[in-house]
C-alpha cells in the first residue's frame, strides 16, 4: 500500500507520546518499542516503523491502523502481535 504523507502523519499521531521526549520525533508503539518519525519505512533502523493493520482483513480506515516498529509488524502471526522488540530505557532491545 502506498500511503500519502497526510495518512502517514495521522497514523504517527496514534503512537504513544512519552513525557520528556519530542513527540514530533519519537513515540512508542503498542509493544512499547521506540519509533523515530524520520525512520518511517526504514527496515535498517531499529527505530524504523510501518503502518500496521490492526485487523489484517479489515479496512484501510484510520481506526484499523497504528504505527508499529517494523520488526514487531513483520513478526505478527495470524494478526496477533508478538512484541519481539521492546524498549529498555531509551533504546530498543530484541527479545531472544
Automatic annotation (TrEMBL):
Sorted alphabetically, which keywords does the UniProt record give?
Answer: Endonuclease, Hydrolase, Nuclease
Name used for this protein in its record:
HNH endonuclease
- Phylogenetic placement of the source organism: Bacteria, Pseudomonadati, Spirochaetota, Spirochaetia, Leptospirales
Stretches for region Disordered: 56-96
Q: Which InterPro entries match?
A: HNH_nuc (IPR003615)
On the tree of life, the source organism's domain of life is Bacteria
Mind telling me which CDD domains this protein's record contains? HNHc
GO function terms (MF aspect): endonuclease activity
Q: Where is the composition biased (Polar residues)?
A: 85-96
Amino acid at each position: 500500500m502506498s500511503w500519502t504523507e497526510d495518512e502517514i502523519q495521522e497514523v504517527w499521531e496514534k503512537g504513544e507520546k512519552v513525557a520528556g521526549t519530542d513527540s514530533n520525533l519519537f513515540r512508542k508503539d503498542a509493544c512499547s518499542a521506540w519509533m523515530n518519525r524520520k525512520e518511517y519505512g526504514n527496515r535498517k533502523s531499529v527505530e524504523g516503523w510501518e503502518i500496521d493493520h490492526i485487523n489484517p482483513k479489515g479496512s484501510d480506515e484510520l481506526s484499523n491502523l497504528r504505527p508499529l516498529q517494523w520488526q514487531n509488524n513483520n513478526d505478527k502471526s495470524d494478526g496477533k502481535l508478538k512484541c519481539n522488540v521492546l524498549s529498555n530505557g531509551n533504546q530498543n532491545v530484541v527479545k531472544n
